[in-house]
Design brief:
Blueprint: E1 17-22, E2 25-30, H1 48-51, E3 53-56, E4 59-62, H2 65-75, H3 96-109, H4 120-126, E5 130-132, E6 139-141, H5 143-149, H6 152-158, E7 165-168, E8 178-180, H7 190-203, E9 211-212, E10 215-216, H8 221-235, E11 246-250, E12 253-259, H9 266-271, H10 280-287, H11 299-309, E13 315-319, E14 324-330, H12 337-347, H13 356-368, H14 373-377, H15 384-396, E15 400-403, E16 410-413, H16 418-436
Parallel strand pairs: 7-11
Antiparallel strand pairs: 1-2, 3-4, 5-6, 7-8, 9-10, 11-12, 12-14, 13-14, 15-16
Helix pairs in contact: 7-8, 8-10, 8-11
């Protein structure tokens, strides 16, 4: 481990390897620490492009050249990728309407700010749409400026995989009923995507009547949580990845999926208070509008907003090939009335034999169609081994059935495809209502 011929960074220290005795047998226990992004990639041998691997559910796989280059880019803390000055781009590549709309929002958020008196070109320099490299003297539009305010054709020249996509899906068996994506009817930059999608998502949230200083408060903690989730997906996305930025709205959940990998651990995400952003210039542009504040990762606002509604805790997961980070925000309580009704229809009085944690697990398996041990670790206040034992019990009693193996093992409601069951249940209720009328 201390030889550069074997690995470029000696991650392990002496106390990371222990001799552990259990049941008369000896084991070597290795603790592999998570490496900071500034030190990535960690690779075998002397060539990072041939010696870098990532762990997948099925094992280790060799990273592509693009993945390794992305790691090097993320490690460059001094020069974030969205601050790069793009050659042969000019102001004609920016959408004038988007800039004017942004300035109006800026003035509404900060009516007394001194930048409101600046000319447009001066204002764009202040928010880093235009930038000068002090070392080379180079001056031009930043990648962040093009992504935020550019025309779609200009963005595609800089980021060929750019395709922000919002889909509203009422039934998993059918196509979307509403979609916002680059279709030629609008300049599909990040500011326009944000401005179009956020009001739609927030419109699905309940708006209780709250007065503060004799004025009605329209934005609840849940509205703030959705705003932060959408902004986080935008500013943490890796726009060099061969994957798109996706937002899905289902009847019972919202899903935010952005290309790239997480720059902090999942545990750090839930703890909050740590801001590590891939696109710092984009983050600053959104922070001027009241989103993506640098005080933390945004997770604290997301979790607080959902706790306020008593909804299930938001769940984040990393996926590979292509690399994506997916945040799921359920619009259901743990034991939503419709879920309890469906589970009672499947299992009847057998549900009465379950403990509270077992019932919550079964509820989650039904509403999300598929769960894992890792998913439950972030949903229940239980140790991994206790969750393993509980899942085995639920399988033995034919409440759940498993598929896969090892870390890739997942569980779903025994003998039931919940999406099909929900659809049949809805159809049955509709037919019943029709016959009664």
């Amino acid at each position: 481990m201390h030889s550069k011929q074997n690995v470029n960074i000696p991650l392990l220290k002496e106390n990371d390897v222990q001799d552990v005795e259990y049941d008369g047998n000896h084991f070597l226990l290795f603790h592999i620490p998570r490496v900071d992004r500034s030190l990535r990639p960690v690779y075998c041998g002397l060539d990072p492009y041939t010696g870098t691997y990532r762990r997948d559910i099925d094992g280790d796989y060799h990273c592509s050249r693009e993945e390794v280059s992305s790691m090097f880019s993320d490690a460059n803390l001094k020069d974030p990728i969205d601050g790069k000055i793009l050659e042969n781009y000019g102001k004609e590549d920016l959408d004038d309407a988007s800039i004017k709309q942004y300035r109006r929002k800026f003035e509404q958020a900060k009516p007394d700010h001194v930048w409101n008196a600046l000319s447009e070109d001066e204002f764009l320099e202040k928010i880093n749409v235009f930038k000068r490299n002090r070392e080379t003297g180079e001056y031009g539009i930043t990648r962040a400026g093009i992504l935020m305010f550019g025309t779609y054709s200009a963005i595609m020249d800089a980021c060929p995989n750019f395709f922000p996509d919002y889909q509203e899906i009422q039934d998993v068996k059918d196509r979307w009923v509403n979609r916002i994506c680059p279709d030629g009817n609008w300049e599909s930059n990040l500011f326009q995507f944000y401005s179009r999608v956020l009001p739609i998502l927030q419109n699905f949230l309940p708006k209780p009547f709250i007065l503060k200083n004799n004025q009605r408060i329209e934005e609840t903690p849940a509205h703030i949580a959705v705003r932060e989730a959408l902004t986080n997906a935008i500013v943490h996305a890796d726009y060099t990845e061969s994957a798109s930025l996706n937002v899905y709205k289902y009847p019972n959940k919202m899903v935010f999926s952005n290309p790239g990998t997480m720059l902090i651990s999942i545990n750090q995400f839930y703890k909050g208070g740590e801001s590590v952003c891939r696109n710092k210039y984009l983050q600053t542009m959104f922070s001027f509008l009241g989103s993506a504040e640098r005080a933390g990762s945004g997770a604290d606002k997301i979790l607080r907003g959902w706790d306020n509604q008593k909804w299930k805790r938001p769940f984040i997961v990393e996926r590979v090939r292509p690399n994506k980070v997916e945040l799921t925000m359920s619009l259901e309580t743990w034991l939503d009335d419709s879920i309890k009704e469906n589970l009672t229809g499947i299992f009847g009085k057998k549900l009465e034999s379950l403990t509270h944690e077992q019932l919550l697990t079964l509820s989650l398996a039904f509403s999300e169609e598929e769960i894992s041990n890792e998913r439950l670790q972030y949903a229940l206040n239980m140790h991994r081994s206790d969750i393993t034992s509980m899942l085995r019990t639920l399988c033995d009693k034919h409440f759940l059935e498993s598929s896969g193996y090892g870390r890739g093992m997942t569980y779903h409601v025994y003998g039931v495809n919940s999406a099909t069951f929900k659809a049949n249940s809805a159809t049955s209720k509709a037919n019943s209502a029709t016959s009664m009328s």
